[in-house]
Amino acid sequence: ALEILAQEEAQGLVDMDKVVKKAIEMVEQSGIVFLDEIDKIGRDFKGDPAAALLEVLDPEQNTNFVDHYLDVPFDLSRVMFIATANTVDPIPGPLLDRLEVIFLSGYTDDEKVKIASKYLVPKEIKEAGLDDSLLDFTPEGIFKIIRDYTREAGLRNLQRQIASICRKTARNALKNNRKSINQNAHGGKRP
Fold first, then answer.
1. 145: which residues sit within 8 A by CB, 6+ positions away?
2. DSSP secondary structure string, 148-190?
3. What is the pTM of this model?
């Protein structure tokens, strides 16, 4: 509903006031606000998002929270905030003290190999404009990429490495004007 209102506002069909009021209503009704990757928030000349979050999460202040940008009051006393972070190190101490931290383990290397084989490799081969016969990622090769080139619990860097190999293979195929290049996941040519 909010997305439709925003589109209508962009076309001049509805006032932005209605969009903001609908957003406030949705937050107050649903009771959940999801904050993704709060470890990436930073301070700049526009303000300090961590300080704003401290105010929002403070039970003494969040019943009468006023957004300083919109100058609109919110009652956030019944709202649950769920935040994600890749690491807690960059989160300011006072903000971290307000959070209930639950540590979740990342994928095991075997799970990453399976996910890469089933989803990431086919996606990146297609994105690079290759067909399956031009490139073969073996489980051993994917495991080597995981161990030697990525150091994260998630899959982003693994996907980047696979995409890089696929793009390099596509460039080589175009440069060499060949229909088939046999490379393993290390980028080395097969015998």
1. 158, 161, 162, 185, 186
2. HH---SSSHHHHHHHHHHHHHHHHHHHHHT-S---B-TTSPBP
3. 0.55
